[in-house]
Amino acid sequence: MDVNILLRPDAIVEGQYVTLGDIFSGIDLEQSDIPVAHSPQPGRQTVLDYRWLYGIAQRHKVQWRPRTAADQIVITRASQTISIDEIADAIKDALVDHGIKPPFNVDLSGETFQIHLPVDIPAAVEITGLDVNQRTNRFIANVTTGSQTAQRRTYRMSGRYFPLAQIPVVVEPIRRGAVVRPDQVEYRNIRTERLPAGTISDIDDVVGKEALRPVKPDEPLMFRDFSNPILVRRGALVTIRLVTENMSLTARGKALEDGAKGSVIRVMNMTSNKTIQVEVVAENEVRALPAMSQ
């Protein structure tokens, strides 16, 4: 037996056939390109055991014989892949061409596989058929690869598309009582069916507002969870201003309740000890309301 001829433990092949040179090392160049078996499908493997290998060696007069029954070779077909995300993007483009208005996303949650293609054809995907039910947002798509080649294949895939709404979310946790800064908020696309009633859609309704509870990032923001910042706290000393056409007066007072800008609250005038109603205009500053003064 020619000891220079050895069985390879594994081989990666690109074409449709496995050759003697893929299986054995040390054979003549004239023999190395002889096809002896079909390759597995792209991305797949097959195992050739010692019986099959010995038969091929005898048939082609290769001076090799198995040492044990464990002798084998693992053949892997090289491939290029098209991911499920690439397929979803192609379907999204086809849905737009079909008349579905963006923004929306495509859900192929029932499909988890990759498409493996031979390395010698373009790694492209085409949508060659599309049925859409706009009432349920469901679709069935014919996904074709290898167009204009002998390896053309079509896969029938189903899924749903979901309209998106651009809404503001915070990008970091916001503690209760904190005032939201502009750099803490940005717009994100979120599926409309996941938006509860009372969701904030305008970033201006969030920036500068005070959080009434802790707020988590990337979640829809609710009107009920924000208010204008409290500028006057109950028990705080405030400046009371009374401005009319003929005079301008100031006095010191004590707030009897919390108030945001524009809120009407009760304040005790420290000079007269009378309780009056005032409008909050700034931090610890209020404007007396003449018609409502006591």
Key attributes of the depicted protein:
five-stranded antiparallel β-sheet, 11% helix, mainly beta, 4 helices, 294 residues, five-stranded mixed barrel, elongated
Please, could you describe this protein's structure?
- The protein has 294 residues and is mainly beta.
- The chain is built from four helices and 23 strands.
- The longest helix has 15 residues.
- The relative contact order is 0.08.
Quick structural gist:
This protein is mainly β and 294 residues long. Helix content is 11%, strand content 41%. The longest helix is centred in the N-terminal third of the chain and has 15 residues.
The average pLDDT value, as a whole number, equals: 92
User: Taking Cα atoms only, what radius of gyration do you get, to the nearest Å?
Assistant: 37 Å
Which spans have pLDDT < 50 for at least 5 consecutive residues? Answer: none
Which structural category fits the helices and strands? mainly beta
Helix content: 10-25%
Could you describe the largest sheet, including whether it forms a barrel? 5 strands, antiparallel
Number of strand elements: 23
Distance between the termini: 117 Å
Which oligomerization state do the chains in this entry correspond to? single chain
Report strand %. Answer: 35-45%
Shape: elongated
| Strand and helix order | EEEHEHEEHEEHEEEEEEEEEEEEEEE
Number of helices: 4
Q: Topology of this structure?
A:
Elements: E1 6-7, E2 10-13, E3 17-19, H1 20-23, E4 24-25, H2 29-32, E5 35-38, E6 45-49, H3 50-59, E7 72-77, E8 80-82, H4 84-98, E9 104-107, E10 115-117, E11 125-133, E12 138-145, E13 153-170, E14 185-191, E15 210-211, E16 226-227, E17 230-232, E18 237-243, E19 248-255, E20 259-260, E21 264-269, E22 275-282, E23 285-288
Parallel strand pairs: 2-7, 18-23
Antiparallel strand pairs: 1-4, 3-5, 6-7, 8-10, 9-13, 11-12, 12-13, 13-14, 15-16, 17-20, 18-19, 19-21, 21-22, 22-23
